[in-house]
Amino acid sequence: MVVNKTELSRLTALQVMQDAAVIPVIVLHDVAHAVPLARALVAGGIRMLEVTLRTPQGLACIEAIAREVPEAVIGAGTVRSAADVMACSMAGARFIVSPGYTHLLGQACRDTDLPLLPGVATGSEIMTAQEDGFTELKFFPAMQAGGPAMLKAWGGPFGDVKFCPTGGVSLANAAEFLALSNVVCVGGSWLTPADAVAQGDWARITALALQASQLKLSS
Ligand code: 3PG
After folding, report:
1. Which residue's CA is the nearest one to ligand 1's atom 8?
2. Fewer CB in 10 Å around end: N or C, the chain?
3. For residue range 179-201, what is the model confidence (pLDDT) as tens digits?
4. Prediction pTM value
5. Other beta carbons less than 10 A from residue 21's beta carbon
6. What CATH number does domain 5-213 carry, 3.20.20.70, 3.40.50.300, 3.90.660.20, 3.30.470.20?
7. Ligand 1 centroid to residue 136 C-alpha, Å
């Protein structure tokens, strides 16, 4: 599916989650890897891409993908402050993913009109994000914080919330998460192994993306 610019400017967090079963969490150390990596993922059917700010090159990688790979929808991950949000917006990020939630972060995303998938790991964090209007959330770190059993438990009191579990999710357990009614998609770094990126093994990354894009998207 090709999204035009108008649709992109109206992207919601739910649309980010519904595009494919997996949002790849990407860590890049070399700006030269950004564009071929993005193209490799898109070739495998994955186009919502979360490039993290974990490396000094992250922002420049976001910028390069935004400029050169229009068929990808570039997002920023590991966003922790309002200043990060502003920088990502300037770099061309179309959505924001954070490992936790603060009011300032939520406000910065509203100010820049960027959809946010805020990270939560407790009921209080879910309620804080909900108070600010965020109902599509990243469950992080998913496996370490309770895995599928935690999501099942949250389905009772937080039945109106949709999750993207991330952290310890892999091809081996993704289907278990995706089978849950409150999970739309999962996030994970397994599509972009550090050695494949370092070696420029884009064919391997396309193969991993193809495999992931065939996972059943949760309804
Ligand atoms: C994230 O930042 O969302 C996680 O570190 C990704 O976790 P994973 O490496 O276990 O997939």
Report:
1. 167
2. N
3. 999 999 999 999 999 999 999 99
4. 0.94
5. 23
6. 3.20.20.70
7. 18
